[in-house]
Amino acid sequence: MSHLIKGVAYLETDNILTQIFREFVFLEEHDVLQSGSGPWLISHVCRSWRNITIAHPELWTIVRVLLEDDPDKPRTRPDEEQLLSLMKLALERSQSHSLNITLNFTLAEGILAEHLIRAAVAHSDRWEKADLVFGRRLSPQFAPIRNHLSRLTELTLWSLEDSVHPFKYVQHAPKLTRVTLEGFHHGTVPLPWHSIVHFSEKNSDQTPATRATSAYLDLFRRNPQLESFELTYVAPRSSPQSVLTHASLRRLATSEPIIIQHLTLPRLEELVVKDNEGTLPAINFLLRRSKCSLRSLRLLDFAFDAETTTLLSLCNDSLHSLTVEWAGYDENVNEAMEIMVQKLSEPSFLPYLQSLEILINEDRDSNLDDPVVDPLEPCTISFINDAFVKMLVERWGRRGTAKAAFQRACIIVEVPSTLNLSMENGIGRLQQMSDQGLDIAVVVQDPRGMNFDRVSYVYTV
């Protein structure tokens, strides 16, 4: 024992602490203006810890500002001058390291917001990732970043306005590869398209309906390097366009049929699609035209009907990962899943599927702002039954055969619910597969909890 204790004395404790601090800082979503969070919290523990945080500038490279001047909430922060000092000190301590910047000015457009933007903009040459949430009035404060974004690789712009406004300061960012626009339109945000590989545009319903389908198709036509495209905006109908072949796109996330029906994507590997009117037929025609080897499919709010079966059959010999997600729960979910379990029990159906994920989210839109709404009535998840377990056992049992065996099965239910009582013995079989190496989890919300404070039951992991 003495030789073990002697060895401990030679451990490089500073290096160990530094690694722990990195994990803490990078995982915690701290606000740099809160002196009791992130690296500030660590530096206040003792002199030794403070010295470590100051000696390691990488601990200060996540600069997140969440400023909300909500008159209904009491001000719990120090005065504005002290907040600005915290911001500047954090930026100073990061030295020359690349920065991950988040500036969220929801409901805040005062002098403090302007000063904080100026402090961050002064270091824009070091921005590597930037997530900016602001209104039209603050937009001009970002003008100095023009031609000073040499390290920027990822950009997210969120508009707080009901109407689109221009943002013309990021056209010269030579390393920019990933862009997400929320409430902006790509026509009002000049971008260095030659380098962008991943593009996402999520416009609100208030966006003026002036976005012709051709404007989005032109993005594909002019940018052959695109690999991922996401659009959550119903484009207005326009004159028919010719079918466009894009040879590089690997990921598509849109449910707008008029966009889908004009594309041929021979290298498409990942598809995310929501059940809108006309979406499934358009997707099925896309897959037939493209003759691609789709490996990952995410279906949102789908009924398991003939069109869905056709969709899955079109990628029957290539699909490795399937995610099915619903926004809320009703008996239609059980019905759809029972049909899916029946299909998955067929040996020839999706024979190479390795990952199955089922997500039933709580539909919070109806009671998010109403504290008097009663908790959702508990439901019984009946599709997780003996047939479901038997299907998993059969799929897991394919190990060592020509067909692919399940590697992962995850069911997460975010509504108060219970499993079928007949499942008690089935849980043991799931646990046995888990012990043998299957990555499996069945998680439901405790029906005894209240709204968002429920504790999850993890039946098997």
Count of DSSP H/I helices: 13
Q: Helicity range of the residues?
A: 25-40%
Shape: globular
The oligomeric status of these chains comes to single chain
Distance between the termini: 36 Å
Average pLDDT metric? 80
What is the radius of gyration computed over CA atoms, rounded to a whole number of angstroms? 26 Å
Structural class: alpha/beta
Q: Give start-end ranges of low-pLDDT stretches.
A: 1-11, 70-75, 205-210, 366-375, 450-461
Largest sheet, in brief, is: 16 strands, mixed
Number of strands: 18
User: DSSP strand (E) fraction?
Assistant: 15-25%
Please specify the SSE layout and strand pairing:
Blueprint: H1 2-8, H2 13-27, H3 38-43, H4 47-55, E1 62-66, H5 80-93, E2 99-104, H6 111-121, E3 127-134, E4 154-159, E5 178-182, E6 198-202, H7 213-222, E7 228-231, E8 244-245, E9 251-254, H8 257-260, E10 263-264, E11 270-274, H9 279-290, E12 296-300, H10 306-314, E13 321-327, H11 331-344, E14 355-361, E15 379-381, H12 386-396, E16 408-419, H13 424-435, E17 439-445, E18 456-458
Parallel strand pairs: 1-2, 2-3, 3-4, 4-5, 5-6, 6-7, 7-9, 8-10, 9-11, 11-12, 12-13, 13-14, 14-16, 15-16, 16-17
Antiparallel strand pairs: 17-18
Helix pairs in contact: 5-6, 9-10, 12-13
What does this structure look like?
By secondary structure, the protein is an alpha/beta fold. The protein has helices at 2-8, 13-27, 38-43, 47-55, 80-93, 111-121, 213-222, 257-260, 279-290, 306-314, 331-344, 386-396, 424-435, and strands at 62-66, 99-104, 127-134, 154-159, 178-182, 198-202, 228-231, 244-245, 251-254, 263-264, 270-274, 296-300, 321-327, 355-361, 379-381, 408-419, 439-445, 456-458. The strands form 2 sheets. It has a 16-stranded mixed β-sheet that branches. β16, α13 and β17 form a beta-alpha-beta unit. α5 (80-93) runs parallel beside α6 (111-121) and α12 runs parallel beside α13. The protein is globular.
